[in-house]
Amino acid sequence: MNRKRKRVSPLTEQRRRLILERVRAWGEVRTSELAGLFGVSPMTIRNDLNALSEAGAPWRTGRSRASSSTPPSWG
Fold first, then answer.
1. Is the pTM of this model over 0.90?
2. Which burial class, exposed, middle or buried, applies to 68 when counting CB atoms under 10 A from its CB (0-12, 13-18, 19+)?
3. What is the pLDDT of residue 75?
């Protein structure tokens, strides 16, 4: 299935870069912590984590968290 690449706003790109930094720094993040930090809903954070994962971020995601044994080296 060919999926069109959705255009992402600069604000979303910035938030996703910051999420990558948090995962690198903290090793594990909770969607609720990130949602509070960025002032968005937990669903928005889950969408960001999914998009980053699809883009190749080497981490595992659970129901409410993402953790990295190999922190992303790109961003």
1. no
2. middle
3. 44
The Cα–Cα gap between 30 and 46 comes to 10
73: amino acid identity, one letter: S
pLDDT at 4: 60
**How far is Cα 8 from Cα 73, in angstroms, rounded to an integer?**
21
**What is the token pair recorded at 73?**
């080296």
Name the residue among 41, 39, 46, 38 with its Cα closest to residue 64.
46
Reading the block at residue 55, the tokens are: 């883009």
Rounded mean pLDDT for each run of 10 residues along the chain, 75 residues in total: 72 94 86 94 92 80 57 45
Give the rounded distance of the alpha carbon of 75 from its chain centre: 11
Contact 58, 73 (CB under 8 A): no
